[in-house]
Amino acid sequence: MVLDFKEEKTIVKRNQATTKPIADVAKNIVYDTRNLNLWYGDHHGLKDVNLSIYENEVTAIIGPSGCGKSTYLKTLNRMVELVPIVRTSGEILYRERNILDKNYTVEELRTRVGMVFQKPNPFPKSIYDNIAYGPRIHGIKNKKILDEIVEKSLRGAAIWDEVKDRLNQNAYGLSGGQQQRICIARCLAIEPDVILMDEPTSALDPISTLKVEELVQELKKDYSIVIVTHNMQQAARISDRTAFFLSGEVVEYDKTDVIFQTPADQRTEDYISGRFG
Amino acid sequence: MVSQKEDKTSSVQQLIVNSRNQKTKKIVEKAMPALLFSAAIISILTTFGIVFTLIFETFEFFKRVSITDFLFGTKWLPFSGNEPLFGILPLIAGTLKVTLIAVVVAVPFGIASAIYLSEYASEKTRRTVKPILEVLAGVPTIVYGFFALTFVTPVLQEIVPGLKLFNALSPGIVVGIMILPMITSLSEDAMSSVPNSMREGALALGATKFEVAIKVVLPAALSGIVASVVLAISRAIGETMIVSLAGGSTPKFDLNVTDSIQTMTAYIVQVSTGDAGYGTTIYYSIYSVGFTLFIFTLVMNLLAHYISKRFREVY
User: Which ranges carry the ABC transporter domain (chain A) (predicted)?
Assistant: First the structure.
């Protein structure tokens, strides 16, 4: 799919227009998950998941190891299909179209939905080529436009000032925290609609973590963000809504304040107060 | 309880102290490095011995034939009575013709198969195909030689008009088939060792599988792939039996691939199996050709080593 750069810009503008505080009900739903079930072979990984993800919000997904939180995140851009034995049922509507439908091309979906991984995974190329990779595979070849995209994306990921003098150096020369922000910039370069983050700070030191958290706050003005985290304080600090997963089920999903102050379910309370997990 | 425990400990400790093993262990520990060192030194000395012989006999040759005639002469006629000519260029031309054809055959197919095996094939396919490739690499080259002479040449003669019974094309193709598994196997290793996180990173940006293979995996594995190609070229240069059987024994300094040729290796075989007397110029000439061959393969191996170090994309 070839993206028109100008067209992309207008989409972002439209997104920005909706960031003004509006009544909760009026918020647009980006992802609507309906009765999602998922199996890894015989293992029932996700059970009847129903979840709505809202535009220009940070949605955190928390839960103990093996609860299905990463699996759910990877279902949102169908990366979960890389495991050949996976089967799914139910629907995930992204902008009102079911992405689990076989007719939905996965490349199109992933062009609209970016992902940041647990371990920073830049390509073994220069910083510039890392950022330009996405636009290039989608057909943007004009050097001037690419230069613009690279600068804009690196600024967007709050790393421009640190790397602007060494864009031609290998991205692996950077620190782990910088690499992760390069990966975020690489994701921003195709100006996606949604950014999925799979424990993006678990391999980083506290200062780098803080930078990424601040960045997430900044990014939600333009993007809808879903973040999986094993760090409950992080979820409390940066998210608008929190979903608590346990054994493949959504135990509770509400505004983050509610989840952390007055959870409705005993299991949620036990988990956030550190009694297990 | 406590005393029992102490008893036990002390008795085991006692056994250890009393054990004769300790003494043997010490002797073995001391002797081992010396033994291992001598094993290593023997193989190194042998190599030096071979190279020394090569150089020594090559010097003998250059006492009889001038080095410029050897390096720049365009005629290799060692058996022509009173006025033998020893210009190495025709032999080098023969070798390079075969090598070039082999590379043209093996590199595209080898890399394409490697991409298939590493990026597309199921785990099961890969587990089946890899051992078969290794078996192919173990087929004696004389078998390939017969295959070239008795099967490939007749088939090619149907397609290529004017193709002689002995030519460069047929052994070139078969040498290509011979080095194909080597390129496939080593390139596949290089591609498989590219971490999956890199593929995921590209897929998550909306790249197709083929774009991931070409634009992420291939560049990341490039040093390994190039090294495998250079090593394969080095094998093609040194290949002997296929070219001796199917290439002919007419050294010519030209670009013709349909005519009979002679490679450096084939010449050495020809003289070694003939009746060249010890101490004759022809006898020494095989060392000079051998030395030239040695230089070629040495340069290729060093190049492979350099490339795999210098152009490694660090991840």
Answer: 31-272
- Nearest-angstrom CA–CA distance, B110 and B179: 9
Query: Containing H/E element for A5?
Result: helix A5-17
The interface predicted TM-score of the complex, written ipTM, equals: 0.86
**Cβ-Cβ contacts under 8 Å, A186 against chain B:** 201, 205
Among partner residues A117, A119, A138, which is closest to B206 by beta-carbon distance? A138
Residues B118-144: tens digit of each pLDDT = 999 998 999 999 899 888 888 999 999
In the predicted model, what is the mean pLDDT of chain B? 90
Phi, psi angle pair for A62, to nearest 5°: -120, 165
Q: Do A125 and B219 touch (CB under 8 A)?
A: yes
Give yes or no for residue B211 having a pLDDT over 80.
Answer: yes
On the question of pLDDT at A74 being above 80, the answer is yes
> A170 and B314: CB-CB below 8 Å?
yes
**Which numeric CATH code is attached to A5-22+56-77+106-272?**
3.40.50.300
Nearest to B216 among A119, A123, A170 (CB): A123
Give the residue on A whose Cα is nearest the Cα of B200. A79
Above 80 in pLDDT, residue B248? yes
CB A138 to CB B315 under 8 A?
no
Separation in Å, CA of A142 to nearest CA in chain B: 18
Instruction: Tell me which residue in A115, A121, A138 faces B198 most closely, judged by beta carbons.
Output: A121
Cα A65 to Cα A134, A227, A230, A244, distances in angstroms: 31, 15, 8, 12
How many angstroms separate the CA atoms of B242 and B170, rounded? Answer: 9
Of B195, B205, B219, the CB nearest to A134: B205
Q: Which CATH architecture has domain B85-310?
A: Orthogonal Bundle (1.10)
Q: Kindly give, in sequence order, each residue whose CB lies less than 8 Å from that of residue A54, ignoring residues fewer than 6 positions away.
A: A27, A28, A29, A30, A224, A240, A241
Q: Do A111 and B216 count as a contact with CB atoms less than 8 A apart?
A: no
Domain segments of chain B: what residues?
Answer: 2-64, 85-310
Instruction: List, for residues A260-277, the tens digit of each pLDDT value.
Output: 999 999 999 999 988 876
pLDDT at B1 over 50: no
Measure in Å the smallest separation between the Cα of B111 and chain A Cα atoms.
Answer: 20
Sheet with A194-198, strands from edge to edge, namely: A113-116, A194-198, A224-228, A58-62, A241-246, A249-255
- Cβ-in-10-Å burial (0-12, 13-18, 19+) of B3 comes to exposed
> How far B196 CA sits from the closest chain A CA (Å)?
9
